[in-house]
Amino acid sequence: MSLSGHRSHVGSSEPSYPDDSAAPSDRTRPAEPDGPDGPVAGAAPARGAGSHSGSAPAIALRDVVKRFGSFTAVDGLDLDVPSGTVFGLLGPNGAGKSTTMKMLTAQSRADSGEITVLGHAVPRASKRARARMGVVPQHDNLDEELTVRENLEVFTHLYRVPRAHRAEAVDRGLRLAHLEDRPHLRADKLSGGMRRRLLIVRGLVHRPHLVLLDEPTVGLDPQVRQELWGLITDLRAEGVTVLMSTHYIEEAERLADVVALMAGGRVVSEGVPADLIARHAGSTVEEFPLEAGARADEIEERVAAAGLATRRTGATLSVLRADRIPESLRESLGRGNARAGNLEDVFVTLTGERVE
């Protein structure tokens, strides 16, 4: 399911840009790694060793604004990403997710506000921040003429992985991408899923503390998407902080420890997915087909009078927190098709936009 702009009873598109993992002037000379105990040669921190216990967040944005002419893509954004978590930015196209990602790597500069990444102010110290992060762009920019191994080797040089550790870093990338048996295959001969896995592990060769994934599974079939979910889960197990933008509801629910729902360049709500669902949608939602000639507005008014939220999708009316439908209303409504509440219901309730 993905997010689009339709109305709910309760309650512009984002400019495109060329995707890359760093600005051209920085790609050839990344900042020096922290040393043998830093992100290049050192082991990843244990999961939960970050800001859960009160230390500084991996990413912090304060009142960040980004405009493109008269269009405000990011509008006073405040966000903290705890260390050691998989953090999901969930929202429709145009919500400001990709623009936020670009600002974190200084490929786009905020008009106002403050951004800190791994303790470094961005864009002022963006080289130091990027040396400790891995960036996976939304669009495929693999070098078609290089082999799988060569694509990884190039990035061990760009990220200044020490010479003695480069072969090990490449081998680890091959294992993570499940491409150990295809190291000499050119990138243009890989399947779509293989290319995407290679694109992700290319940003991991220096064992970054933080990984930015911009719509990591967009356009992929469900089977390949689930394979990539496994890769993200592996990163979580290593204690790596992951910031992932997505408009796939199931992806956010399954992978993210914390989700921030974005609309109109702002975060409208944030929390653990299960908590957000319990707070805004309830455990049970019932879907009622709207028969021809049915007065949907009147039905919605009766449901609202009972203190319950609704959302309409085509010829279907969904009632949130259906376990609280009073008997007096139940007599006129009957029983709908029951299902579990999800983040789609939450997003609709809070923003008036619908998830497809």
From TrEMBL:
<feature type="compositionally biased region" description="Polar residues">
    <location>
        <begin position="1"/>
        <end position="15"/>
    </location>
</feature>
<keyword id="KW-0046">Antibiotic resistance</keyword>
<dbReference type="GO" id="GO:0046677">
    <property type="term" value="P:response to antibiotic"/>
</dbReference>
<keyword id="KW-1003">Cell membrane</keyword>
<comment type="similarity">
    <text>Belongs to the ABC transporter superfamily.</text>
</comment>
<dbReference type="GO" id="GO:0016887">
    <property type="term" value="F:ATP hydrolysis activity"/>
</dbReference>
<dbReference type="InterPro" id="IPR003439">
    <property type="entry name" value="ABC_transporter-like_ATP-bd"/>
</dbReference>
<keyword id="KW-1278">Translocase</keyword>
<dbReference type="InterPro" id="IPR017871">
    <property type="entry name" value="ABC_transporter-like_CS"/>
</dbReference>
<dbReference type="GO" id="GO:0005524">
    <property type="term" value="F:ATP binding"/>
</dbReference>
<dbReference type="GO" id="GO:0005886">
    <property type="term" value="C:plasma membrane"/>
</dbReference>
<feature type="region of interest" description="Disordered">
    <location>
        <begin position="1"/>
        <end position="55"/>
    </location>
</feature>
<dbReference type="InterPro" id="IPR050763">
    <property type="entry name" value="ABC_transporter_ATP-binding"/>
</dbReference>
<protein>
    <submittedName>
        <fullName>ABC-type multidrug transport system ATPase subunit</fullName>
    </submittedName>
</protein>
<keyword id="KW-0547">Nucleotide-binding</keyword>
<dbReference type="Pfam" id="PF00005">
    <property type="entry name" value="ABC_tran"/>
</dbReference>
<dbReference type="InterPro" id="IPR003593">
    <property type="entry name" value="AAA+_ATPase"/>
</dbReference>
<feature type="compositionally biased region" description="Low complexity">
    <location>
        <begin position="37"/>
        <end position="55"/>
    </location>
</feature>
<keyword id="KW-0472">Membrane</keyword>
<keyword id="KW-0813">Transport</keyword>
<dbReference type="InterPro" id="IPR027417">
    <property type="entry name" value="P-loop_NTPase"/>
</dbReference>
<keyword id="KW-0067">ATP-binding</keyword>
<feature type="domain" description="ABC transporter">
    <location>
        <begin position="59"/>
        <end position="289"/>
    </location>
</feature>
